[in-house]
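Side project, low priority. Logging it here so it doesn't get lost.
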Amino acid sequence: MTLSPREKRVLEKIDPDGMLAFLGELVAIPSEGGAETPAQERVAEWMEENGLEVDVWELDLEGLKTHPAYSAEIEREEALGVVGVIDGRGGGKTLILNGHVDVVPPGDPSLWGFSPWDGGVVDGRVRGRGSLDMKGGLACALFAAKAIQDAGVRLRGRLVLQSVVGEEDGGVGTLAAVMRGYRGDGAIIMEPTGLAICPAQAGALNFRITLRGRAAHGCVRDEGVSALEKLFPLYQELLALEAERNHNAGGALFRAYKNPFPLSVGRVEGGDWPSTVPDWIRVEGRYGLKPGEEEAEARSAFQRALDRGSAGDPWLRANPPELEWWGGRFLPATTPAEHPLVTQLAEVVEDTLGRSPMLEGVTYGSDLRHLVLEGNIPTVLFGPGDIRCAHTVDESVSVKDLDHTIRTLAVMALRFCGCEDD
């Protein structure tokens, strides 16, 4: 299938300079988790300026906490939902384009080669925290919608643009949009997939393990029980669990990854004094879940690994590790690869980019699971840039990828939603 005259007309109306200017402005607004409101207000303002029907609301954070799918690592005092809609004449399907404005902290600014809130374009790349993950993808969706409007094309279905908060720590913004009634026949989340189509995501659970020891002066350390030393056999069992769970796991969609469902310890703390044997230690991390895996069974496998690590140690048998599941809870979710949303997007990528798209799974959690599991909405991830450039210093995204994403989203909206004279 080749591009139609209407599709070519829409592509000619794309404003790449305007998109880069807006994205730079959005990146320059710090929007770490819990401080997303200024960025959301700017997105809502842009939507209104460009003729979308805009819904802005205060999230009922206390009410959302009662929902079984709610999870968060950040206590928010306020949060805004922002949705812009291009309403069609009827008879077509509804497509949701979803992107988040929250970003992870930049860390030590001195480690960056430029300001984390730069937003400028250098050597063909937009620089700054959130440029890749994922204000860039959100800006692409907004300017794809603008091109459709500027070309004077009337859709039969609805195009719904969701700007959400809290994706990085649990997905409260997308959950709130689903609960507000924003559903559709399909959804695309513009996460950085390197322009691959990703209909499957792994899941992840946050864990916390606390070990108890017995304090003693460091000069007679053998008279105490070091909680740090008691961690060693447990950690070895967790590594063995990771290896077992990833052996020939994931299938074709995850073939690019050695460990598609990793178990990673990211934080360790313990002890109260340098010359005292530590009588406590606490580790926190994330535990990867496989698509189709039951959460309860995954948790049981984790507990069994801790039990095995404790079985050969008299102290651990008498003082077993305390396991707590906390914070972010990203369940795995999948849209079948043969679903029309996936196959149609693949056709669009081929027509707009001139090549067959990659079809992959992603090893990270995202808001895909809220749209699929809570909204019953077929959903894929598709967006500009490499996830390996996210959550690190000198984050950036290529202008070329941004351009490809806008073009693909614009044509996909036309075909998926339909146009009034089709």
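Brief comment: DSSP finds twelve helices and 16 strands in the chain.
Revisit when time allows.
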